[in-house]
Queue: 3 jobs
Job 1
Amino acid sequence: MKLLSRALLALAVACTASGAGAQQDYPNKPIRLVVPFAPAGAADILGRILSEKLGAVYGQTIVVDNKPGASGHVGAQIVAKSPGDGYTLMVGTIGIHAAYASYKKLAYDPAAELQPVMIFGEAPNVVVVPANSPYRTFADLHADVKANPGKINYATAGAGSSVHMVTALYELMGGTRMTHVPYKGSGPALIDLMGGQVTVMFDNMSSSMPHIQSGKLRALAVTSAARHPRLPNVPTIAESGVPGYAGTSWWTLAAPRSTPAALVEKLNRDATRVMTTPEVTAQLEKLGITITPNSPEQAANYFRTETVKWNRVIEASKLQLD
């Protein structure tokens, strides 16, 4: 028995040393960063910033791999089923981590098969219309939507995406109904919005801001509880006819559930360091994104709180997407 105990102890020590060595050697090859939406949206913007900055720190290429579809679940499932070795990571969203109940037939379990490394940041969405739209204010839009249920269409970054969820929250709280036109990301949705193929979009501020600044889009309202410093003259939805309304978008760095805790902690430290530099912070502030450093545990707790919130919206709206 003593010989067996010594052998088991030696094996445990060897395994621990091997795991520590593997982590110290990480990364020793390129990393795949799955962005489960089309290029040019908020998730893609954040993914490319992280890829550039963290790749420089690691001395390895971080390849951004856009895998759009099913509100991000196509790409998220790829990550969930990948080895937990730190070489396949993902930019996650509300739709993946907290509003997945709108899909009843997913081939994976987001809560059980993915884990957060960190929450990148949070931003309000902004209600935007083309520059030549007849709607000058959100009150104008709201009155027309109320008077013509289902006749006004709106674009989203995909069914069940954060853009969709904040719009569904408006419909629920405002007692309104519009026609949903889903895309595979904010990039293609904004192209059609600016081209007049769709009427309105409750888009992520980061992807709409350049078009607002160029004059191609008009901002009618922000979805946060208070006005945003980047758009101080743009009122909130709550100010504009829907009292109590508030909803924001957030993005994560996530990994397969099987990723060791020590590696998750390392990724959290390194990603936090590069995403909170003055250069990156200023870049993100211009896009309306606020970065707040957080631990994997804090992110997981936030997921649970947000899941309760968005499940209420999904249930009340009878939102089923498959």
Job 2
Amino acid sequence: MRPTGPVAKALSIAVCALLAGCATTQRAPSPKDPWEGVNRATWEFNQIVDKGLVKPVAKAYVRFVPRFARTGVNNFLTNLGYTTTLANNVLQLKLLDAANDTARLVLNTTLGIGGLLDPATDAGLKRNDEDFGQTLGYWGVPSGPFLMLPLFGPSTLRDGPSLVADYYTDVRSHLDNTDRQIDFAYTGLTVVNLRARLLPAEAALEGAFDRYALVRNAYLERREFQVRDGDLPEKPADAGFSDDELDELERDMAEEDAAEAPGPGD
């Protein structure tokens, strides 16, 4: 599973919703998406925000900010939000993963200069990715209907409200937020960082007949994958991505991670 951190995770989901256009042809409503009309309208709104603001800023960020600086920013944001993953590993009684995550957090915060570097990965400590929606799913709470959130993107009736719990397990929610300019700057940097990292993945949506349905089905399948820690039942026939397509998307993201590593010329 790809970790992104708690708030990062929410924003990452939002960016996925903003990646593609809305289809003009409607299919029969899916049983897992009873509020499809409202969800598609929200999708269109997210599209406008992405095309008019988020994507252009993200492309400029990639063009003008050196790779090593973008890597440091991503490491810092991921490390700062890692307390949610740690808390949810404890809630799921995954104590070995919780010990691993504690070691990651301590090592990257100290030797990694506040998280700008990632010595924990070099030391063989894996990155985990847990949130409260996954915790509820782990204990048997069903996902409920699909829900497209304004700006945050794909979610479900279970996962959407869970973002509140993730916020309060995030160390950033307990910092002094009296300076709203710093708050806004931090949020903006988080969004731009995540959107920039997803730019290479857009090719996976090219040529889709109904991009809304594609993203919806891929999101639901990936959440099921995360809740079950990869132990998925047989995939339904209408899933948005084939196994090969999902593998290719993961490879694209992994290659982007590798490309973000500082090179000799940076």
Job 3
Amino acid sequence: MKKAGILCLCLLFFLSAASVAGAASATIGVLPIVDALPFYVAQQQGSFRALRLPVKLVTFRSAMERDAAFQTGKIDAYLGDLISAALLRSRGFPAKVVSVVLGRTPREGLFAILTPPASSIRTLKGLKGRQVAISSNTIIEYVLDGLLKANGMSEADIKKQEIKSIPIRFQMLMSGKIDAAVLPDPLASLARFKGAHWIVDDGQTNLSQTVLVWNGAFIRRHLPFMKAFYRAYDRAVTLINRDHERVRPLLVKKCRLPRPIARTFEFSDFPPASPPSREVLERVLTWMKTKHLLKHPVKMNDLLFNPGLFDSPGPSKGK
């Protein structure tokens, strides 16, 4: 009788888990960047499947396409940054920042200022009065402003040049048509590999974070699914951190790691899921207010989702 009872309990647990997993499915929008690696690993290695989680990944060519899909309800979550999330929230969309993907520590997900291969400029102060190519009102401009401030300079010391497309910005940098550019890794590392000069990055000042943003209505309806999702996510992170070389082919194929640096690019460990720090978010919101980017005021508690979904303790201290 005792064995029969245990078997019944196990069966009930299995059916309960299956019903939780079957109660929801999630469509997540990603860009083909290094930051998306844990989602592809979870998909390929079966972390989602093991927990019976129907998770669909949709790759977008640009952040604009991704944000449009989120606003129209075509995706339930997206890989982005705090600035994009705050912009959506200020426009009335129920964006909730739930977890940090990269940026909990300074060396995760670097952005860098570089000068062309033929340039004689080797320091940030050497860029005084020069044009620096960015995409305005984005994480790119936020990083530039932060790097200037951290190095005793101000926005007035340089001239901002609008080049929204990252590939075009990269090409113009390499051809010497611009004085300098802000680029994210791995394109920044590719530029250095091809001879560009690495001036400064945010590895010390801890400015940029990549986050997973969810539709608030989805979270409220599917909390059990969310908890199971993050268990699967953390399994994928463990696999990556245990053996970078094992997942490198996936990084090249799905995250479009440039082939010239495919074997040499050193990517950081990914942190287990945890919420962004309130200090980091406060700095971002303050910057956005000074730029008059928020259509309506955004309160920190409206943008952040209350933690409790994660197995890993505590909020991130980082970026």
